[in-house]
## 1
Amino acid sequence: MPLFNTRQPASLCERCKVVAFDDAEFEGFKRVKTKDRDFLGYDLPEKQQEGDEEFEFRLDFDLEDTFPHLPQLTQGATNGCGFCGYLKHLLLSDDVQCRLGDLIVDRGDRELSVSIFLFYRWGTWLFFDSDGLDSLVVGLYMNARDFQTIDNNGDLEMEIILSVGSDQTLVDIAGPIPRLVYGARIIADAERNGREIPKYAALSYCWGLESHARDQLKTTTASEERMRLGIPIECLTGTIRDAVQVARAFQIPFLWVDSLCIIQDDIADWEREASRMGIVYSNAFVTFCSLGSSCHTSFLQPPSPTILIPFQSYLNDKVKGAYVLRYSTCAIGKVNANHILTDVSSSRWLQRGWAHQEYVMSARLVIFGPHFVHFLCPSITAAENEKPASVQWQFLLRGVATDPEELYNEWGKSIAPIYSDRQFTKPEDALPAISGLARYFSTVLADEYIAGLWKRDMLRGLIWSYCTYPGTGFPHINDLLKRLSQRNPYIAPSWSWMGRRNVDMDLYRNVQDTRGDFQSLCDIEATVDVHGQNPFGRISYAQLRVTAPTYTFSDTKISQNAPGIGYVEISLPEGIVVFCNTDWASRRLEGQFKLIVTGSVDWENTTKSRAQRKAVGSVLGSLREGEFSKKASIDVYGLLLHVAPQDGRFYRVGVFNSYSQKGGGIQLLDSCEAETVHII
């Protein structure tokens, strides 16, 4: 890593001179805060004074350059500009490249155009109770024409922040040389000697780029016995070495690290440990979280290059000198100004799919971020140099009741939308990476886990929708059908949100939060073929056999109105209005479709318990005989299906609802027929 001179202020080219903060610009003025000291002040907008967000000073800096060579910044650095060289180093750093690598795929030899702009943030410093210059933000904008992204065809914006100012295997770190040990042996030794079972810490971290992961020391079938004799500390990556050092400082004798405690080339061991991951993290005394983008990054001595920027006050000519800019973090989109939210929410670690259950299952966490070290537990959140705060994070084992209804709500309303936004190096890891959490829920609920859904909550679990907005998702239904037909690798069936990203659970929430009488109108049987030994992990096939009221139509038989992307209002020939949330982004339904009605809500009946609700069989029987009560207050909802290539099979391609007050509702059943369909 190049060394930047922090003893002498950097030389700045004509373009970069604006980086030296001008305190007279934007109507700055001297204000007295104490008897002896003057402070810089601004008449800021009311929204900043109310604390809604920090105020931004946009600098007169606009640069067009291209990855990966960045010729404009390279030329500036060659000519002696320290900030051009510093900025080039940041843009080519592992952290920024990892963030870009999450989205940009198969660029080949094509250059990526990037627009670079700068602005300072001014506001109340979170940890020091004072107004001041908080950070310099490097904004990047990349046009969609210049790159391909995963499930995203829109333009990309990024910000880089420069701050101002049991039977499981563990690593025994009590001795001078770490070594692998069996947990059963640790317990046996403790019981034999009348001692308490010793504590262990767990590590949650990012492996990083493929080259970083490949170079990381890992336990294999060939190296396992050798590593039980000893692991030279110098062979460990920077992240794991630091975890060993911190655990020793905590006087914790054992450490769990996935790369060392799971035999990486043993599929059976990998599947067994993946299913037990929730137990590993919930039983750990503490989880250490490294927010670095690579396993080779040291979180105790993070490689945060700094640059010294010259400063001369234009309000007080006696004030001159320099200030330091230090790399803090980068993230897609806008970065939160709160340091703990910036550290955690903007980190690549939080985007990592496997990290989700690691932090929600942990008893407590020590998080090593670019700003501070943070401590999180269910009752308190704190950072160094900060008073304890009440920022709440999602902890399931200690923070959620064991009431089944609350747990179903937690899974459907919180876990599903959050987890679906996570990223995976291997998409087929979506089910294994949450299998430890699923095992915990299954035990507490005593319910059957079905490809990311729960048998007794299947009716609500099916009515998720796909977040689609301009430039995201599948542009056309044919793109969606092509993805659904791909079975290598097989991730999840079309009716499970596990195979999708950016899932929305608004309809689930509406059904849950309503005070109306919620009733099933279908009979569902599920079939799942598990792939491997983990019953909560990968699957090779799944289908639903659903008997319910159905309505078949084509685009030529209906009128359509599309009030928004992925949202279609259709009028059936019978005059009934149906609202569809499609899993693709176009505004039209094209082809042959089927509505399958799965449930209803009776707004006039708010007192019935679930046990009092009408049985599914009688509803379907009455439907066949044309005798089902058509109360004006009943709304209906269900799935939008499209025929699949397999004979007699369908794909789920969206959800729908029909409101009684908007020309639909239970009246839809007049035009339906009872049918059994197979959804894959």
## 2
Amino acid sequence: LKICFIFTKRFTIPQTRRNEATKFLKGATTYHLIFDTLEDQRDLHYDDEKVLIVHDQKIAILICLFITYESKICKPGREGVSKIPTALEYNETYTQVINWGDLSLDEELDDTIDDLNKRSRPIELFKLHLSNLKEDQKPWLPLQLDYRKVIVDYFTQMQILIKSTLERRWPTISFLQQVGLILTIPAEWPPHNTTVMRECAYKAGLLTTLNSTHLEFTTEPDVIALYCLNVKGHNLHYGDSFLVADCGDDTVDIITRKFLQNNRLNEITKRVGDLCGFTFVDKEFLHFLERKVGIQALEKLKQCEYGQVQYLIKRFFSTRIRFKFNEDRECFRIYKLNLQHYCPSLPQYVTGEFKEQMEEVGWIVKLDFESVKGMFDPVVDKIIKLIDGQLNDVRERCRAIFLVGEFSESPYLLSRIREAFKDRVSIIAVLALPIAAVVRGAIIYGLNVKPTHDLSDELDNLNKIKTISSRVFEKTYGIKATRKWNPSDPIERKLSDGMINIFLQIAKQGNEIPIDTGISMIFSSNFISRNSIDLFITDEHDVKYCDSPGVNLIGTLKISTPSTIKNSAISITLFFSNITIKVVAQEVDDKTGWKYETLFNNISY
């Protein structure tokens, strides 16, 4: 679950210079994920400075990019390494953060602490608590912590690092007044989670007020679309459709778009996603070990010696297998895993028949081709099923499948996808620098979108980038309406006045809508002044009532019309923009010039 922050100093940059910076960032030969120097520094001459700090929790990269005369990288805990895990280490009572990032997941085996009760287990993958996973499938958390507190603590550590870094470089910057935050979120997150993230950012000291306009949300597929527009070498033409699969550590997001003139894209399918990133391959590896040493033994190792589990995954599975395994059975060599080397404490937890078997083989576990394939297949099969569903929804031939994200660099994943779809799609490729796709797209977004100061900016930002031409509704939207009850309606729903409340559909799942087009409804001013309007969202089809299973209330719209407006027709228009819905109410004949605007946040459509 990827979170990307862009911090931009709030000043005006001339459009010519903005374009120059954007063009510079797009160059694959000059813009690298890790900067020691900028090769084209001589080409940039800014009187003002702009600061972009991108933090991507999915691939755990933290970059400080200074588009002036120098660049720096902030990597707490380890110089020269680009990845910073979204992990925290607390004291033994889980009341204070000791380390974060790499330092919280020290890969070296530590025997200095003899009392196991004084060892705290690092907190990892806490982002998955924001997902739709069942409770028993969510990552472990100690009883002393809930996931919101962990997110706040992580943001707090990030905030400390960012502020100190900016202070050294730009001591005159007022962080809370001059720095904007753009947070990218997975498309499949439940709608309420933007509220959770905003609250956590506020509590961590990243915002002065809870509703600060210095924090904006956008979705990962949108910034990936920006990145895809600038990828060359695949000979896409106007009118071609292509599928993008963002395969990360936790989630996989898939969407199909059509390439239009003037560098614009149409969404032609609704986004789909699932929890099937590479960390789930890691879990299959651990399940394999459970069958060798016993579930209880491995759980005890996690509880008491979690660092050894991390050491095993990082130094053995990730390094030797995860991104090297492919379908070439003939070239495959059997891996021999010495458990006593990677997990020296494990034997003391293994009992009974498991212990006898492991002692017979000298605590060596062999991983043959079928064993490793069995770790990948359950996860890869899910991804292939998602892609197949998308291609089936496209009414025309899809020309290309592009893979981005860290898991996309798995040779096995690529070969399986090519084998599955080679007869349906002519181009199947991993884009250049796939791990940085969201980061690079977010940087382009940050350079081209002005900070939001009022509601009208929300749509202006999308129009300014002019990338997404239309969207496809992922949900069905409706309002509560009242009509006359008839005999075919349930008798128990009949109101005392002979009416019935129903779900009135205003936008249907799967339908396409231009990005700058709204959905309008007409009400009388008398009705508006006396009643509120409830807006609902659902994944269900053929919904009849607002309290039906799977129907959720987004919000309630209460509009106060001025006393000068009587017996007038009021137009209420909903503009669907990114992850928000902008509501505009005004008189149809515009006699008084009255206009009302508000914003529904936390929308995933």
## 3
Amino acid sequence: MFMTDTALAQAANAGQLEPPSLERGKELWGKCRACHTLEAQGRNLVGPRLHGVFGKKAGSVPDYRYSEVMKNSKVVWTDQTMDAYLAATQDFMPGNKMYGGLAIAQDRVDLIAWLKQAAAK
């Protein structure tokens, strides 16, 4: 599911999705932090640190052992690419290391909104 900002707004206006909940996004981060950190100098864990992830090329965090498909990807992380990736990680980028992602669109909207703020600090 690849949703632009306009599509997200239209879906929310149509009653399909609620506006992003930062509180819910932070709750969802609880699952992510088992494998990721947010600090600028944070350690890479099972997954790479996500500080400053938006606007960054996929597979570009130093000292993290990415899959070949992620390293060679041309993807730049935006709201839209993150949404598509989290919706179905293996469909979006077959062969990457990430688990299944988040099937519920509202969960992705909430997590992405929270992550954009938290990962920028």
## 4
Amino acid sequence: MTHFASELAPGTLYSVVELSNQLGVSRTPVREALLQLASNGMVRFERSKGVRILKLSTQDIEEIYMLRIFLEAPAAYHAAQQMPQEHREAFQSAFAGMRAACEVLAGNPAGAAKAVQEHLLGTLRMLIQQSTGDTAGAEEYQPPVIPRLP
């Protein structure tokens, strides 16, 4: 399966059918994902042509991450304050695993980025579930798409 954020070239025009075939899923979830990306300014639909992956500037990416820091840092702090000691130990263990994975994959940036992204997503879901008790909400959590630099 192709990983959307790391495989599609900015500036390129794709059809929904082409993307659904590439990803091995039906057109409906692809169309829904593209609509969400379009609402975030990451793709643009072109009538009777398809969807174009937009290029993001370094400034765009900096703004995205500044907003994420502004929103996620206080949430992480609050979650950490509410976390029982046994959950802190599990989190510290997960963080150590992430660090070890980064060291092992240092010679493979694409593999390392994917491994780190998957590990962080799992860790975030664990923290959400542990701090709120909302298992379903934790499983539904999806981080923002990580854009590629032009």
